[in-house]
Write a structure and sequence with these properties.
single chain, mainly alpha
């Protein structure tokens, strides 16, 4: 499941790179950012056979929860700051995995 996570994460990297280029060169890449986010949603959230979401979900539910929360939170916060999006997405995803693991263990 970990190797399959690289495909949605590369779309997220393209979003961060686009946002950085948008800030540095003052060009409008919002359509490109939105398309990459919908590619993440399509590949990751939909657990349809032969898509990455199904491989991650059925491989490890914790990785799937982590990836979904991280990508969605990062996309929402990327308008404010790229660093805030990365750190906030990581903290949000880790807290969701912690609460899921604590609930599953109880």
């Amino acid at each position: 499941a970990g190797v399959v996570l690289l495909i949605p994460e590369q779309y997220l990297f393209l979003i961060f790179l686009s946002k950085f280029l948008e800030n540095v060169f003052e060009i409008n890449l919002s359509a490109f950012i939105t398309i990459n986010f919908f590619l993440i949603l399509w590949n990751l959230i939909l657990p349809v056979s032969h898509l990455d979401g199904a491989k991650i979900l059925f491989g490890s539910k914790l990785w799937w929860i982590f990836a979904v929360i991280f990508c969605i939170f990062s996309f929402i916060v990327v308008e404010a700051s790229i660093v805030l999006a990365l750190i906030g997405g990581l903290l949000a995803a880790l807290s969701c995995v912690f609460f899921y693991y604590k609930k599953a263990g109880a």
